[in-house]
Design a protein that fits this description.
single chain; globular; 153 residues; 44% helix; mainly alpha; 5 helices
Length: 153
Amino acid sequence: MATAVAPPATDPTTGPFRSAREVVPADLWDKQVGLLMRDYPYDSIMAARVLGQGYAYLLTAMAHRGESLGLAPSTLVDIGVHTIILDTMAYAELCDRFNSGDFLHHVPKVEMKNDGSVMKTAHWVAVDGWEVDLSLWTDAAACGPCHHGNDSH
């Protein structure tokens, strides 16, 4: 039986953090911000915030692959995640760079949950050194679980 792993007691709003813009090529970033603006009622600032948190979540999931942490994005962060993973060639390159070449599959489930996993995930993102835009993580009650395993999030 797997045991739950609690994130370290860290405030996700403090500390020097990395921005996803540091690891995403500028042309790809601009393209994906544009896709978010095309598909959602976002200006460039909101689109960049959502995209940045999507990358921070995915990079954290990759860093903890196989640890069964139960990571889950909020609804807004998940929009960024989907924008990233739907650009499959760029996403495959991301997996090559940050997930030892293994494709991190996305396997959502239908049921929603309200178990604190979204805020726990925001803490893990911060612990891993990524900038956390906390206001994008506040809809924890609408969390959609994903399949947690060695090759999916």
